[in-house]
Amino acid sequence: MKSILSLLFTFLFSSLFAQNQDIDPNDLHNLFWKIEHPYSKKVGYLIGTIHLIDKDKFVLPKEVTKRISKADVLYVEIAEMQDQAKAMELSMMKEGRMTDILSKEQRDSVYVYTNTEFGMDSAKFEKLMGKFKPLVFSQLAFAKLLTSAKSYDLTISALAKENKIPVEGFETLEEQMGFFDSMSDELKIELIMQTVRKNDSNEEEWEKMQNLYLDQNLPELLKVGEFKGEMSDFMNTTISENRNVKWVSKLDKEFDKNNLFIAVGAAHLQGDRGLINLLLSKGYVLTPISIQLN
User: Fold this and answer.
1) Has residue 192 been placed in a domain?
2) Distance between CA 222 and CA 266 in Å, rounded?
3) N- to C-terminal Cα distance for the chain?
4) Cβ atoms of residues 221 and 49 within 8 Å
5) Under 8 Å CB-to-CB from 245, ≥6 apart: which residues?
6) What number of H helices and E strands is found in the chain?
7) Taking Cα atoms as reference points, which of 3, 54, 21, 24 lies closest to residue 213?
8) Within a domain: residue 294?
């Protein structure tokens, strides 16, 4: 179970110069970018990743590995987890059980789902998985699909370490889990029930996500599994935009000191408050670099 959790957490984020660049932040089809600033001699590179992908589809172009080896510091969403016990602790609810917030009908649907998928009756589920947080439960839906997966984040981090390049995380695991802990009970219920409802389409969705990533089709990739209503607002604001703003603030302080390589989920690149547009608004000059992934 600890190894599964580690994999799932991995699965588990000046305008004058900007005006001179013809980049639409809502229509990006590039995953790899060079970052420069007119007042700095330092250079950065940014790649949008899919956190996990089937091993036979994994490609890391030489152009990317070359830039990693020349960086002074690598930034990823969260540095590689060493403390598996801490990861397990953070995956569990401190009080109560996940099903406490569900109605009887919703609880029964969860039991049917876990019995079908994991061969657990309600008693066994409550004993082994009942304390999991809704976020962890939602990721278990993909557990069977990830047994042969490879991580871009871990691979890039390993390459940096081979070259004795420090690896820094934008966030700690505790901070990252805290974002989801702040969800209302209504949103946690929606996260749980969406997992149950989408059971039949998980494999198809996983395949589609991978192919769109390899095609570098960000606009369509972001539509897969798209949330609606209040859940969409939470994901866009708390999980994406607010974190992007903090990350760019941190990068802005580092850029004058080091040549950076940045690897984050591809969803963080796009949009008015995506990393591309936020960096442009601070006067950085971004140049897309063509890479082949399929």
Assistant:
1) no
2) 9
3) 32
4) no
5) 273, 278
6) 15, 8
7) 54
8) no
Structure tokens at 251: 């990068």
Task: Give me the tens of pLDDT residue by residue for the chain, a chain 294 residues long.
Answer: 444 444 444 444 333 333 334 566 556 678 999 999 988 889 999 999 988 899 999 999 999 999 999 999 999 998 865 567 777 888 898 889 999 999 999 999 999 998 988 888 999 989 988 899 998 888 776 666 666 788 898 899 999 999 999 999 999 888 888 888 889 999 999 989 988 886 656 678 888 889 999 999 888 888 876 677 888 888 888 888 899 999 999 999 999 899 999 999 998 998 888 999 999 999 999 999 999 987
φ, ψ for residue 170 (rounded to 5)? Answer: -65, -30
Within-domain flag for 12: yes
> What is the C-alpha separation between 101 and 93, in angstroms, rounded?
12
Structure tokens at 106: 């919703």
Per the structure, the count of domains in the chain is: 1
Q: 137 lies in a domain?
A: no
Supply the range of the domain harboring residue 249.
Answer: 2-87+156-181+210-288
How far is 118 from 123, CA to CA, in rounded Å?
A: 13
